Amino acid sequence: MPKNLLEQLREMTVVVADTGDIQAIETFKPRDATTNPSLITAAAQMPQYQGIVDDTLKGARQSLGKEAAASQVASLAFDRLAVSFGLKILEIIEGRVSTEVDARLSYDTEGTIAKAREIIAQYEAAGISKERVLIKIAATWEGIQAAAVLEKEGIHCNLTLLFGLHQAIACAEAGVTLISPFVGRILDWYKKDTGRDSYPPAEDPGVLSVTQIYNYYKKFGYKTEVMGASFRNIGEITELAGCDLLTIAPSLLSELQSTEGDLERKLDPTKAANASIEKIAMDKATFDRMHVENRMASEKLSEGIDGFTKALETLEKLLATRLAYLEG
Q1: Is 136 considered catalytic here?
Q2: How many CA atoms lie within 13 A of 187 on its CB side?
Q3: By Cβ atoms counted within 10 A, which residue in 11, 201, 232, 245 is the most buried?
Q4: Model confidence over 228-245: pLDDT tens digits?
Q5: What whole-number distance in Å separates Cα of residue 157 and Cα of residue 176?
Q6: pTM attached to this predicted model
């Protein structure tokens, strides 16, 4: 019986579910799962997860006591909610869950370090080893420096909102566990900038970016894992078959599962090792220069941080409203 594309992909790439929807994770049973503020905010508004939200709010009230202001309770619950979803996800999957640091700390190295330690402490208090958690941090220079400190403490990081080779190199030099280059968002930018409606998968700018990063890492022996993210279609996914990991939304996982055909491995460490690639020495000055020169990366990083910040603000309001309802 012929295998579907998802089955074949799993033979060469670790498949990760990009969702906060626990039912979807139960359906596709990925090894790992990733969440972000937008996904958690969306999941928190689904009726089937109201219990997680309510339990988190009640736990925050219990921690702070009856005298605490409602705003304080909602704020603590907000800090805990992503971990609450993470704990539920870890009951289903065998591997790791990625939980994101507050996007408003993206340019604050010390704040990011402190928040990451808090998140890990919450997981450990619930009996989860830090080996099963990846702390998601935006790939700003400040975020990458925070990740370098955390990795030395044994706290593993997933650097997100990554759009350029300069970000990827800085992450690898910092000893980051994993990076998440955003394929679809890169495509979105190029379509808008050029006025083109589409690109063939092999010419997709997001695919080309991840391929470049993957080949650079394998050429120079970096241990940092590459996890392509933010896909718009299954063509982008099949062009990156062989990547270390791919984190895929449930709708695209379903499409891969229902599609048959031969899946060719496109990314291969042996081929990358023999590629002609020049090594780039990375420091802050080089990072800043390359970031300014890469208009797409500059714009998409700022836009991504703004988008996650707005999602967090929406979540804070949702929790405050729900707390008011619960407390009458």
Answers
A1: yes
A2: 24
A3: 245
A4: 999 999 999 999 999 999
A5: 6
A6: 0.94
